[in-house]
Amino acid sequence: MAKMGVLVSANIQGYNGIESSARSVGRERAEHRAPLRELLDHQVIVGTGSDWPGDGPDNMFVNMGFYVTRRTKNGQVSGASQKITREEALRVATYNNAYLTFEENSKGSIEAGKLADFLILDKDIITVPEEQIGSILPLATYVGGKKVFSNEGGGF
Description:
Blueprint: E1 7-10, H1 19-25, H2 27-30, H3 36-41, E2 45-48, H4 60-69, H5 86-93, H6 95-100, E3 118-121, E4 138-143, E5 146-150
Parallel strand pairs: 1-2
Antiparallel strand pairs: 3-4, 4-5
């Protein structure tokens, strides 16, 4: 996939549990859903979104918490071998998403000359306990350097 330049837009299949998938395709295959560790280890560029249909969450930090811990919404671990680091989760959700849409030169990272899209968060994703990543919330959202959303404590 990497040699062919295939880009992957992954979602959090498995977050809601794998019981029905395990009945259909077996536990080993079901736990291999959203194999981010394997894809990243093979230098495949992976992005992710929070627009997964169904009863999935619309908070990107839930996705990132799942990728880091592989803990389902009922607390079980599914596909532990596919865990990624917090830093990898940040890259998958930011720069890699911009790369998937051919916008990596204008957004996806904080650099001079880019759009200055960023969040102020209520917790630090790098230091918060793993089980709290999914509960991170934005205090403020900036698009093009302008505040477009603010919650209590939302910064300047």
